[in-house]
Amino acid sequence: MIRIIKEEEPSKPSTRISTEETAPSQAALRHTEPKKLAAMLRGELDWVVMKCLEKQRDRRYETASGLARDIQRYLSNDMVEARPASAGYRFKKFVSRHKGQVAAVALILVALLAGIVGTAWGLFREDKANTQLAKKIDELAEEQTKVQARFELAQKAIAALHTGVSEDFLLKSDQFKELRNRLLGQAADFYKDLEKLLEGQTDTKSRRLLAEGYFQLAELMGKTGSQSGALDVQRKALAIRRALAKEPGADVEMQLDVARSLGATGNILYATGDLEGALREFAEQEDVARLLEIKFPIESVRTALAQSLNSTSWTLYLKGKSDEALLASEKAVKILDEVSKINPNAAAIRFDLASSLMRMGTILPNVGKWQDAFSSLESARLILKKLADDHPTVVRYRHQLAVTTTNTSACLFDVGNFRKTLATTKEAISILQQPVDGYPGLIQFQHTLALDYLNSGRAMGELGMLLEAKPAFETAMKIWKNLVEASPTEITYQYFFAFCSNEIGKLQARTGNPEKSFEAHEKAKTLLQSLSEKQPTFHWAKRVLANTNENISKLLTASGKYEEALSVCHKALAIRQKLKEEQPNVTWTSEELSATLISLAKVQRQMVKLADALVSIRRAIAFLEQLPTRTPRNTYNLACCYALLAGISTMKEAGIRLDDGANYSNIAMKFLRQAFDGGYDSVSNLRVDISLDSLRTREDFKKLLSEQEKKFEDKMP
């Protein structure tokens, strides 16, 4: 036993654990396998234990503290003191135990050494060269590994930024502005450095990761208002993805990446008002997706195709091409409906379907399909309501539900049902309140909220609730002012800022403030003219510009400046006629042109240009009667036309027979009754619209007014 203790080396822990019967149970306690447990012990833990069991005192740990320090070094991944003994020390120990055998072997080695030396010297030089080459290869491999590791770290960093910041909706909060700019700046610099590191690299993985990084970075920049910078970065992603997609062996995902980048660049061009440029990107996106669908009719490809159609549809709608927009929208809805039936539990597909239905519901009124519009919007609302209820933490579902409700309120306003408009805007605001309170700086939420306050103010104005309308308009105006300052290249916010200014001008006129009214209209006019010049295809600006000119004409008429009023009204008419020529099959061009002709007729009547007034009124009637579907509001405008004819017939200069005048009055009352029975409910207009003055002495008019006033008191939300 003493000899064993003095001379025989003890077994290492890793060796013992691999041979003992208890190894499986010991490994199970540590949630691993016996082989892995032995591997964990092998190496530094073996050295520490063996140092404790060294034969010579001076090679063991001096104190328990020394052992503790070495264990701490192991836990800290530092080099332990208990490294294996030097080769010299091990050789000395071996010789002391085997002196005879070592002497014999030494003689043999001396004999062999002479022959080996000669051969070794010849191989040395070649080996040295090979060693240097291997070293260089190892260095290059190590450098490549570092580059890849740094790149993947950057990918994780930008993904974390994109998810953690973007999806938490903190991007537009004022208190995060400095942090946001710093983070985005660092992210951009990070990718510039990576671009340099990867320059000349041809491996697919690195290039694809870099493209994805650019894609996500551009999305972040766009959401924080830096559209021009976002476009440059997004085009870098697109260039890389195009190159990858052309290489042999490119898979379907690489082709889809091209489609996604085309959609992203199109969205940025759309946001900055370059609708033609956006349409080109969306058209190419559709081409890529359609070619892919032929070979790979899978969900991801089909949804990408639907996305391109939706984007094209909405851009065409903003250009006033509602017929073409509707065709594209219907195709998108059909695709997404089919995909959702195959995968009914996919929330993302249902969300896309609802969004497509919502957009289609917004386009349908422009081709006179009002009932289809409300049906489409309701289908979208039901899908989004269930998504929002099932996923209460997913904020975009609630936001899109609010957007759908907002669009429904806008449609209700256009048909003339102002009480329902007001109730629906209140519902939209209540849906938005929670996410707006949680993310007060998020740009999309603020824009939708402003739309709700705008629609609310307009509805209250039509209902005669003028005092209540003012704060609603002011709230909307304040939001859009902030959005314009935050995103100066985003034309949508500029447009609605001008739109709201025009509505405030109308309200000021009705509350007896003509100077403030004129000031608000002039502000709107200046902004809208600028937008129309910069973006000639953006017809929405031209529509509101025409309406602003009409409102200025009314102010001038009220102040007795008839010649100026007539001139301004003709400017409005010229805009309307051009829009009608450009979009002959779109219903709103006929509706709005008829409204401008009615305004012109009122000015002409004041100037006693009765023949001209009669021509204007009859043209308005013709446009209204040609509509494929007549809304309650259209019917009200028809009543106004015939009431104006009845009023002019009482003037001798008009040359209209009294019997014809009486007939016009009867027709006017018939249409007026139809309008209110159909849902038109502006009691305020019934009270004050000068177009109806010729009807006010009629008993049936008085009865209708009394009924509507009673209904107004009973049904106000």
TrEMBL record:
Stretch list, region Disordered: 1-29
Signal peptide region: none
Name under which the protein is recorded: Tetratricopeptide repeat protein
Record's keyword terms, sorted: Membrane, Repeat, TPR repeat, Transmembrane, Transmembrane helix
A Pfam match: TPR_10
Polar residues bias locations: 12-25
Bias kind Basic and acidic residues: ranges: 1-11
PANTHER family: NEPHROCYSTIN-3 (PTHR45641:SF19), TETRATRICOPEPTIDE REPEAT PROTEIN (AFU_ORTHOLOGUE AFUA_6G03870) (PTHR45641)
Transmembrane segments: 102-124
Organism whose genome encodes this protein: Telmatocola sphagniphila
